[in-house]
Amino acid sequence: MQATAQGRAPAGSVVEAKALNLTFHTNDGPVHALKDVNLAVERGEFVSFIGPSGCGKTTFLRCVAGLETPTGGSLSVNGLDPDAARRARAYGYVFQAAGLYPWRTIGGNIRLPLEIMGFSEEEKKRRVRDTLALVDLDGFENKYPWQLSGGMQQRASIARALSFDADLLLMDEPFGALDEIVRDRLNEELLSLWARTGKTMLFVTHSIPEAVYLSTKIVVMSPRPGRISDVIDSPLPKERPLDIRDSRDFIDIAHRVREGLRAGMEAA
Amino acid sequence: MTDTPLSAPGAGVGRSGRVALWLRGAGGRIVPVLTVIAALIALWYVACIPMNAHQSVLLAERSGAEVTPAAASERRNMGGIALSLRNPGPALSAAFAQDRPVLPAPHQVAVELWDSTAGMRPTSKRSLIFHGWITLSATLAGFAVGTALGILLAVGIVHSRVMDMSVMPWAIVSQTIPIIAIAPMIIVVLYSVGVQGLLPKAVISAYLSFFPVVVGMVKGLRSPDAMQLDLLRTYGATGGQTFWKLRLPASLPYLFASLKIGVAASLIGAIVGELPTGAVRGLGARLLAGSYYGQTVQIWSALFAAAILAAVLVAIIAGIERMLLRRMGLAR
Ligand SMILES: Nc1ncnc2c1ncn2[C@@H]1O[C@H](COP(=O)(O)OP(=O)(O)OP(=O)(O)O)[C@@H](O)[C@H]1O
Ligand SMILES: [Mg+2]
């Protein structure tokens, strides 16, 4: 799967931001949500964004998704501008809330993007079955969202983003509302999913351990104006059991992230 | 996975236990409802005595009984309660059986309702089923047109800023004009171009029923939040896909709430449409004829027929709503 995912995408960085700026014009004056953001994400990387509330993590992800228009600088996704990439269905987006449609079953929710993108009936069936298995929800195809726990709903929303097999996955605090035990399990599952599919991940989180555990690259951001204050390349191996969190390397990176966050707060 | 969580009412109770629970639940609702109905009927009977007192006393006087005050002109200036207190015997005995009472007793209305529905052929000119059908057909035609128009306008309003700014104010203004004022105009105008019968009434019905549908449907079509809309944008969905897959299903619960108001409004529209023409058929015609000839029992039975019809229509829509929403997984 990794081979096909890499084979069909164009060469170059998956996401490339150069001097990206975004200013919201609100009633209380302009809000500088992103200031001079420079970032390159390579194929197959797992990049986490961490930073205090309001530092522009969601805004950056929405820019990549073409849901927000930057006011300055350049941004490319798969070599296209974000709007064109959006129309080319270059990415799957997982929002902070599961946001499943209550009138559709779990299977029906996962079919939604497939219906819109015009997959064949047979292909739809196959993909729904496969993605449900991928997030460990086999047997729940005909349940309605309210019959599932919060964690299961969040997994279903990840399955929905995976179903059309985009190479890039954008996730905005997908596990933010879940308790730590469920979160650990889902983190493990997400890592193994990433290892199996070779997708490129952009992942927003508030949790330092989560960021360190998951990422090959951690982007530390600071607020007012929202900017990148540190980019940390993780030396952790690709194979990561949960107890890697007690290792020396892990603790060192977590420390550096914490320092980066503190420095960002003081500078602001 | 079990289908009933343990905390659900009736969970862990056997079948017979569940039936008993249901009975208790239903009984818990039925008893207060019946109590209120009984109280209202009792109040109604009591009210008949002073309301019909003048007639009762007059009848007693004609049959040679002693009444106070003896002069009819003096009685005319008295209130019904005072007159009943001065002549308790006649007031009480004749209050519930007059031909043309000011306020007919409940059983008189019930008997008239029964006689004019079950008691005669539905094709008879005096049958309430005949007149009810005339009104119902105009109601349904108007309701269908009003609903379709309301949905179309709502779709336009949600998708076009121009329509939002131009149509909504007119829709609101249209509803501030009393229907009593506009109904005769519609009927006269349509009559002058040769349209009469069902159609003018249906127009008035549609006029009354489109508005709740517009309001409810606009709210429903706008009910999806920004995240749900953004999700579809990330799929590169077209406007049409967004409408069919998100806005429309999300709007259905709102639509049904509006339909229930709309169908009752439609019935009122059809009845009002029958009044200004001096129509000879329909529930409105029965009301009109009743008041023309002082047939109060007939008026009241037509009123009740209209109320029952409205209740049935609303119940049918509620039934469809429950069925549809359950099939969609929206009702649990
Ligand atoms: N649509 C908008 N209009 C105006 N201001 C906005 C808008 N969206 C975001 N902002 C502002 O931009 C800044 C960055 O917001 P953003 O949502 O990206 O923060 P975040 O890092 O995702 O925070 P959190 O961790 O709380 O989700 C905030 O100050 C916010 O108030
Ligand atoms: Mg955010």
Automatic annotation (TrEMBL), chain A:
- Taxonomically, the superkingdom here is Bacteria
UniProt domain ABC transporter: residue ranges: 17-244
SUPFAM superfamilies named among the record's database cross-references: P-loop containing nucleoside triphosphate hydrolases (SSF52540)
Q: Which Pfam families match?
A: ABC_tran
Keyword Protease on entry: no
Instruction: Write out the entry's keywords from A to Z.
Output: ATP-binding, Nucleotide-binding, Transport
User: Which is an annotated GO molecular function term of this record?
Assistant: ATP binding
Asked if ATP-binding is a keyword of the record, the answer is yes
Instruction: Describe the family membership recorded for this protein in Swiss-Prot or TrEMBL.
Output: Belongs to the ABC transporter superfamily.
UniProt-recorded name of the protein = NitT/TauT family transport system ATP-binding protein
**What is the species of this protein?**
Palleronia salina
From TrEMBL, chain B:
Compartmental location: Cell membrane
What is the native source organism of this protein?
Palleronia salina
Keyword vocabulary terms for this entry: Cell membrane, Membrane, Transmembrane, Transmembrane helix, Transport
Q: Which CDD domains match?
A: TM_PBP2 (cd06261)
| Protein name according to UniProt | NitT/TauT family transport system permease protein
Q: Which residue numbers delimit the ABC transmembrane type-1 domain? A: 132-321
What kind of membrane protein is this, topologically? Multi-pass membrane protein
Stored Pfam families? BPD_transp_1
Q: Which GO terms describe its biological process?
A: transmembrane transport
Q: Where are the transmembrane segments?
A: 30-53, 130-158, 170-192, 254-279, 299-320
Family to which this protein belongs = Belongs to the binding-protein-dependent transport system permease family.
Which InterPro entries does this UniProt record tie to the protein?
MetI-like, MetI-like_sf
